[in-house]
Amino acid sequence: MSTSTAQQLPLEPPSSDGAAPAAPKGHPKGLYVLFATEMWERFSYYGMRALLVLYLLNYLQFQPADSSSVFKWYTSLVYLTPLLGGFLADRYLGLRASIIMGAVLMAIGHFLMAFEPLPLFYAALAFLIAGNGFFKPNISTLVGKLYKQGDARRDGAFTIFYMGINIGAFLSPLICGWLRRNMGPTPGMGYHWGFAAAGVGMVLSLIIFLVGQKQVLRDVAAAGNLDEIAPKKKDATVAQAAAEEPDEQVPSTGGFGGLIAKVFPWLLFALAVVVPVRFITQAVAGHEPWTNVIMPTVFSAIGAWMGWTLLTIKNAARDKSTVIFVLFTFVVLFWMAFEQAGNALNIWAAYNTATLDFGLFAVEGEDYQAANALFIVAFAPLFAMMWTGLARRGLEISTAAKMLAAMVLITASFGAMVAGAAAENATVTRVPLASLPPGVQLETLNAGRFGYEPGTQELTVRGVLAPFAVTNALRPTVDKTYMGQVEALEAAARNASPERPTTFQFTDLPQGYTFPLQGGAVSAWDASSRTVTMVAGLSPLTKAQLVGAGAPPAWREAITSLAEKSKAAQVSGFWLLLSYLLATFGELCLSPVGLSMVTKLAPTRFASLFMGVWLLSSAVAQYVGGSLGEKWGEIVPTSYFAIFVYSSLVGAVVLLILQAPLKRLMHSVR
């Protein structure tokens, strides 16, 4: 967000007496229509995101590697599709139709999330991804079209609009999280209520835009921009816009900066070959699924395209353009860490963090995701005043220096998480256990945080034993014959209903077996005949309970007791809040200046293209960060959070070294 005030320019010719007419006061009513539209759309997005990983882990019984895989695909595509959506809006659909189409698709997607079957869940994600591609890039553009060129109110309008984003992002985790914890068939399992609330938010967004679109169009027309929001035919003269821009007449810089500008396109070409080859080789060897080849190849192809584009730009214009792509790397590192909020930090908040009780209200689970939006609203004006005050005193900080500050702050943010995780890992919980079940290898379970002491006959765990780790520990000890019977029960009960109940008889049960299900899908259980009557199909959660019941009783009792007692290892939520605060400070150093920097450095004929590619940094970051998230549960939390300390710290050091060369490559631009 940029909160600086643009220089006020006259919007009309001076009057006959030589006095410039007063600038319009207030903002067009259409701005508040778009404010409310975006607020409720962001409510729906962040509400759904707050629940997504926890739903996959707790309700669908995914392991962290699988939940992070879904998360990385969803969030990376959400940030990739706006490139296509913006192009289609520009060439074929226009802004208004694209926004309506996107809102309808997302509303469908959110309501599909309220249904349980897995195919509908994946269909819901597809609708959300497609809808976001149409909606997201075009509503922001429409805000700008409410104002004439040079209108001093434009910056203020985007500040108001950005506040709408953060109000939605603040409210949604609180409301959807509360519904998850307090509604539904059992406490903590009201996920579909939360998803439905996100759907209501999206419908409200759509209704507000449909009702207010005439006002928006009137305001766009008053600004003289009505033609600019309609589909545009390709201008044949664009291909002939080879007339060199002023910067292409200015000699490029020399020294190390000049070397970077010369070498960088060829580095992009090299990466465009090396990265896909690496993933294809891994897939051929069976070390990576073939689906993991897709996105790296797409990103590499875009990188090669940008390398070729840089070679078509000359002299100082290439220097400035190179800065955009060099800083792109550090922006990816920043967002890769920052966006752990929806994945690893969300898991940490749910299982490893104690509830913060403030008397009138408590903060737990998804609530922590509201912290970033709250801190943005509180501190963004202060940062804006700080940048403005420094510039007024001739101490303006360069874009590269602000991004360096962002890298330092995100390093500190995850340093706080490492400290909190170290405190959690230091707590050891013990329960009695005569011996380990045959074949159990503790070092392969729960990131190696289990331990067994034969002398005292105790099973131990460091830190908190999360529910998904309990499932993962029980499953390998379940007899295969019993596992097959659970699969047969699942198949038999698929179409069960109160009107058409299904009866299933287990042929054999493990010694000391206790049937774990009561009520819900089960209408009766006869232990003597080992017969169960089902009136609904097995959900992933009830299936996991059935599977766990087949584990050796002593092992099952030890693991479940350990999980309950290990909650004493939960650490204060202030670690998370401190991490979010430092990350938000970093965001305020990086996010507002990035878009502005592209507009200052990009050649005119590539301004839109480079802006789209700059926004692509979030897609790359989400994919890489989600791929790292697949390691959660396989490595200890301290080591996981340390990944982002090291990556951000290395980025900060490299960016520090590049400050002088980048300054020269930017020529006179700050």
UniProtKB/TrEMBL annotation:
Mode of membrane association: Multi-pass membrane protein
Family: Belongs to the major facilitator superfamily. Proton-dependent oligopeptide transporter (POT/PTR) (TC 2.A.17) family.
Highest taxon in the source lineage: Bacteria
GO-annotated biological processes: oligopeptide transport
Start and end residues of each stretch annotated as Disordered: 1-25
Compartment annotation: Membrane
Transmembrane annotation, as ranges: 43-61, 73-90, 97-115, 121-139, 160-180, 192-211, 263-281, 293-311, 323-351, 371-391, 403-423, 574-595, 607-626, 638-658
One GO MF term: peptide transmembrane transporter activity
Predominant place of localization: membrane
Ranges of compositional bias, category Low complexity: 14-25
Pfam families per UniProt: PTR2
Protein's name according to its UniProt entry: Proton-dependent oligopeptide transporter, POT family
Entry GO terms, CC: membrane
Keyword vocabulary terms for this entry: Membrane, Peptide transport, Protein transport, Transmembrane, Transmembrane helix, Transport
Biological source species: Stigmatella aurantiaca
InterPro entries for the chain: Dipep/tripep_permease, MFS_trans_sf, POT_fam, PTR2_symporter_CS
